[in-house]
Specification:
Strand content of chain B: 5-15%
Mean pLDDT of chain A: 94
Shape of chain B: globular
Structural class of chain B: alpha/beta
Number of strands of chain B: 12
Strand content of chain A: 15-25%
Low-confidence stretches of chain A: none
Oligomer: heterodimer
Distance between the termini of chain B: 32 Å
Number of helices of chain A: 5
Number of strands of chain A: 3
Helix content of chain A: 40-55%
Structural class of chain A: alpha+beta
Mean pLDDT of chain B: 97
Largest interface: A-B, 25 and 25 residues
Number of helices of chain B: 13
Low-confidence stretches of chain B: none
Largest sheet of chain A: 3 strands, antiparallel
Chain lengths: 124, 382
Amino acid sequence: MYSDKVMNEFKKPKNMGKIENADGIGTVGNPVCGDMLKVYIKVKDNKITDVKVETFGCVSAIATSSKATEMVKGKTIEEALELSKDEVAKELGGLPPIKMHCSVLAIDGIRKSIEDYKKKNKKQ
Amino acid sequence: MEVYLDNAATTPMRKEVFEEMEKYFFQDYGNASSLHLFGQKAFEEKENAREKIAKLLGVKSKEIYFTSGGTESDNLALKGIIQKSNKKKVIVSAIEHPAVLRTAEFLAKQGKKLSVIPVNSEGIIDLNKLKKEIDSDTALVSVMHANNEIGVIQPVKEIAELCMEKNVLFHSDTVQTIGKIKINLKETGIDLASISAHKFNGPKGIGAIYIKEGTPIEPLIHGGGQENKLRSGTENIPGIIGLSKALELSLKNIEEEQKRQEELRNELIKFVLEIPKTRINGTYEKGKRLSNNVNASFYGIEGEALIAFLNEEGVFASTGSACSSKSLKASHVLLALGLSHIWAHGSLRLTFGRQTTKKEINYVKEKLPGIVEKLRKMSSIK
């Protein structure tokens, strides 16, 4: 069902865990659907210097969490916001159609964490 | 190491069963409807097999009909009974196999009435609700003998008595129990029972249905009138031979085998419950659960990921998680027990077979806690 790339990413996922004093946090998903993830980012000079993710979810949710966070690490906020679900899926050698929503979830998590960062920064 | 623990899905066929079937492919390949010697031979062997199966199940030969498997038998029972009946209502339990549930929903779409009876948190049907639901318009009650996901055994004798009292037919999907538990169908009082050979080390693509003599039923498949006009189509002789041999073998030392598996099961259940935030789904009170079934849930992790890591270690299991299903819906059985979605998603089903050894269970014990811990560490749900 899954490509080798997805399986390899799943077996050794990167950026798993949390950042204690994160600059932005984004929680997305819903346990009813079986996927819920929480993205933590550290931002310095408009760049995402560190990103971590906690994922409750299936093989593709874990693989896309890993890949998407890897893809935005070191990028500027604007670049990170441009990352699309298709780019993540492509990097993983494709996802089964029924699992595409997992890559959407990872992207949404990242976007939400950036939103959170922006909101917090405005206040200061 | 490779450990196959998905025997509720299917089982390996026994060599002896294959050997018994072999000549009906190459040598005695006749069509049981033909009048010549080849046909006669096929006919005789088929009837001998039917007699053997009937005897093993405590019923009459003419009450056994061969089908393609459990799903067809379930379809035949529900559709066949309701079509012949002037009553409109079918009652099923909430935890039936999709072969019964989807068929019942299809009938409801066709204008029949459907009532679904809940189960308690242990996985046992609510008999009071069932009693209340049976009315003068009820044609059939269908409640499985043992559930395929959690292995919980339903009180079929009591249900049969209730149905008899109210003059309603009772079908039971006995796919998970026949070949695993000693059953005398006559004594249980069931009117129709579905049988599938590949669940007890027989071949795939063959099954049967027990239909109590005199039960009015319409066929599902029309044609040449085989199986006493109830199931047309050239009989699958090798399959029929395989089914009867597999049933004979599986019932031979069944009590011993059941006891052996029960010990393994209890040991594994005890072990699993030592992992924090873990539960066993469905009762495991003695006699109320199949001896080959462990269904556990691990809080905060998702079943498909768990299965995938177990697969990497050579352990082959299944889950009731939504993510592993085509519909992306969590197991209707686990939800019917009242589990929250998080618990339902974190479910793992391990089902043993005759080939399962203590060594294999020890291997699972060695691998499982580490995988659970790894996934929990990653999880956003703590």
